């Protein structure tokens, strides 16, 4: 009990520096964005005018908004689904004992550490039309006859950016799934084997249900992250060709800093923010039991 | 290995030696199965490291080899692209800027994060849960939703194109992860150790520095690596808040490289390889610590 005396004041004192930063650099600017989203404001016309929710109405009638929204949703779902699948396979392999496992695990981490800008350039090199490795390998294997312009084709470029994101973030997924696998007692598998369960049965009856909580947390974290995608798109395609890879972040960035429509741009940022906040709150609510125990 | 040992593995992030062995077990001892398994492991390594190796190979190819494939391997090894980075443009400035910003961010984040982590991990106060949730929500903020107001704030304070203009937002965005990891590390230290120190006359702050922090060295180290890598790799803020090479960081430099060179691919590959090698080395040497940090940051809740 003695430890609690004066704890409140002391705790607040310790938290001041962290919260000055968090409030000053994240919460206060976010509030400003929301306030700005209710105004008509641009670089061309000085002065701001309060227009309520008109910017948000404007979004709903703007095909560019829906295009960016669709691309973001596709990017998010496709990349998280793929990296969960590949992450699971990698985690299952790395959970076995085999020679050089430590090295394989270190190798798996490499894409995670590479800056996204660099991995975008790196894959840009591989998918280059004239001298890219992808065209060369596929041509050699007889899968394609002529070189393709991967990043210049509508409907293909977005899939390439998904691939880059999957490559970069699968290690994160694999690590979390490995941590989850390590909590499943080996005895369970022994018992199931004794009872005559085959490999697939053991996977779906033991591994999947016991892994589910960890899997859900990891998938949520990655969904929130993939939704914010900016670097890959900005560096690889700049949103093109024909806006086919434009996502919410890059679209918002262009409206804010190229078109300097601060009001409309803020409302786009506001839409993203509200979406993420809503998902986060649902997520936290689902996890509240774990937090309260702590 | 028993079930009681399994949770301990999660906390320390130690390799899950026994887990999931049941998936394969003795049946896969069959040679064919073993072969398929190693093929899969090899595929995973190629998928993970191959693209980086390809970039490294490209960076040492002479220009005449760059225009077409084959040849896969360079006909002659050249470091001209690396020299070009430093001769045509002072690329070293990007490296200095990234180093200054990343190290400063890491140090400040460790100090502020430790104070907050101590409060969240070892003190009981009514506002604890709401404040912890605030930290968690901030970690989910999209950067794009605050970049415009921050730009105006930094503009009015003269912080655009300065190191502070990057270090401040990097800290705010790295803090949630740092607080999260450190809180869980601090919690795991037995209260008796701290009590003993306080009975010996230490203040709370003294106990933090003399007992908690030394015992949490692994946690601090792990946090430092993750924060450093995050700061080293950040792009959106650096792109927006810096305009001259005197303050731009490596990711901005590499993203803007094509505009600056006539034949960019060799130089881009050289620049990318150069700035990624330290990170790859870091990962290969410190993978155990990194794994621990990622797992603690994401799953300890």
Describe the 3D structure.
The complex is a heterodimer of chains A (294) and B (301). Chain A is built from 13 helices and 2 strands, in the order αββαααααααααααα. Helix content of chain A is 72%, strand content 1%. By secondary structure, chain B is an all-alpha fold. The radius of gyration of chain B is 24 Å and the shape is globular.
Poorly predicted ranges of chain B (pLDDT <50, ≥5 residues)? 1-19
**Number of E strands of chain A:** 2
- N/C terminus separation of chain B: 26 Å
Mean pLDDT of chain B: 82
Q: Describe the sheet with the most strands of chain B.
A: none
Most extensive interface: A-B, 121 and 118 residues
Q: What is the number of helical segments of chain B per DSSP (H or I, 4+ residues)?
A: 14
Return the string of H and E elements of chain A. HEEHHHHHHHHHHHH
Number of helices of chain A: 13
Radius of gyration of chain A: 24 Å
Structural class of chain A: mainly alpha
Q: Could you describe the largest sheet of chain A, including whether it forms a barrel?
A: 2 strands, antiparallel
Span between termini of chain A? 18 Å
Approximate shape of chain B: globular
The fraction of residues in strands of chain A falls at under 5%
Task: Note the main attributes of this structure.
heterodimer; A: 294 residues; mainly alpha; two-stranded antiparallel sheet; 13 helices; 2 strands; 72% helix; 1% strand; B: 301 residues; 70% helix; disordered N terminus
List the helices and strands and how they pair.
The complex is a heterodimer of chains A (about 290) and B (about 300).
Chain A lengths: L6 H30 L2 E2 L8 E2 L3 H7 L2 H32 L6 H13 L2 H11 L6 H8 L16 H25 L4 H9 L4 H29 L3 H6 L11 H11 L3 H25 L1 H6 L1
Chain B lengths: L4 H8 L18 H29 L3 H4 L13 H8 L4 H31 L5 H11 L8 H10 L7 H24 L3 H9 L4 H12 L1 H17 L2 H6 L8 H7 L7 H36 L2
């Amino acid at each position: 009990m003695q430890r609690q005396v004066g704890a409140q004041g002391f705790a607040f004192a310790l938290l001041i520096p962290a919260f000055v930063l968090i409030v000053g650099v994240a919460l206060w600017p976010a509030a400003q964005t929301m306030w700005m989203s209710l105004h008509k404001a641009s670089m061309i016309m000085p002065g701001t005018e309060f227009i309520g929710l008109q910017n948000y109405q404007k979004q709903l009638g703007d095909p560019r908004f829906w295009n960016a929204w669709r691309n973001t949703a596709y990017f998010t779902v496709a990349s998280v689904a793929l990296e969960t699948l590949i992450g699971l396979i990698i985690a299952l392999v790395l959970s076995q004992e085999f020679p050089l496992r430590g090295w394989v695990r270190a190798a798996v981490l490499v894409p995670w550490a590479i800056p996204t800008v660099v991995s975008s350039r790196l894959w840009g090199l591989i998918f280059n039309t004239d001298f890219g490795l992808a065209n060369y390998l596929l041509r050699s294997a007889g899968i394609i006859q002529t070189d393709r312009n991967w990043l210049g084709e509508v409907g293909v470029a977005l899939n390439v950016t998904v691939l880059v994101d999957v490559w970069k973030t699968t290690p994160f997924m694999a690590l979390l799934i490995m941590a989850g696998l390590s909590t499943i007692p080996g005895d369970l598998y022994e018992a199931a084997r004794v009872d005559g369960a085959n490999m697939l049965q053991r996977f779906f009856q033991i591994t999947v249900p016991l892994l589910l909580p960890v899997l859900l947390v990891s998938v949520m974290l990655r969904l929130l992250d993939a939704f914010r995608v900016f670097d890959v798109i900005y560096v690889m395609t700049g949103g093109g060709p024909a806006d086919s890879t434009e996502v919410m972040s890059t679209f918002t960035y262009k409206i804010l800093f190229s078109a300097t429509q601060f009001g409309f741009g803020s409302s786009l940022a506001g839409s993203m923010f509200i979406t993420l906040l809503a998902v986060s709150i649902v997520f936290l609510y689902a996890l509240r039991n774990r937090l309260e125990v702590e | 290995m028993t079930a009681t040992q399994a949770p301990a593995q999660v906390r320390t992030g130690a390799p899950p030696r026994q887990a999931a062995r049941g998936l394969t077990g003795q049946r896969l001892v069959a040679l064919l199965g073993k072969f398929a398994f190693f093929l899969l492991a090899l595929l995973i390594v190629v998928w993970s490291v191959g693209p980086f190796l390809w970039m490294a190979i490209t960076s040492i190819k002479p220009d005449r080899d760059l225009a077409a494939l084959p040849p896969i391997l360079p006909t002659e090894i050249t470091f001209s692209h690396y020299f070009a980075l430093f001769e045509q443009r002072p690329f070293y400035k990007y490296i200095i800027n990234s180093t200054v910003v990343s190290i400063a961010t890491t140090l400040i984040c460790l100090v502020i994060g430790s104070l907050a982590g101590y409060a969240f991990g070892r003190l009981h106060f009514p506002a604890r849960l709401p404040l912890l949730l605030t930290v968690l929500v901030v970690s989910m903020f999209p950067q794009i939703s605050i970049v415009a107001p921050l730009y105006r704030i930094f503009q009015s304070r003269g912080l655009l194109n300065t190191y502070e203009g990057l270090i401040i937002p990097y800290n705010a965005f790295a803090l949630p992860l740092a607080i999260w990891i450190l809180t869980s590390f601090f919690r795991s230290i037995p209260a008796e150790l701290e009590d003993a120190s306080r009975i010996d006359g230490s203040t709370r702050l003294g106990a933090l520095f003399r007992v908690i922090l030394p015992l949490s060295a692994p946690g601090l180290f792990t946090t430092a690596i993750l924060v450093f890598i995050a700061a080293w790799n950040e792009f959106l803020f650096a792109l927006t808040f810096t305009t001259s090479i005197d303050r731009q960081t490596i990711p901005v430099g590499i993203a803007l490289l094509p505009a600056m060179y006539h034949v960019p691919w060799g130089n881009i590959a050289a620049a990318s390889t150069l700035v990624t090698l330290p990170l790859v080395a870091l990962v290969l040497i410190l993978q155990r610590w990194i794994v621990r940090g990622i797992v603690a940051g994401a799953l300890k809740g």
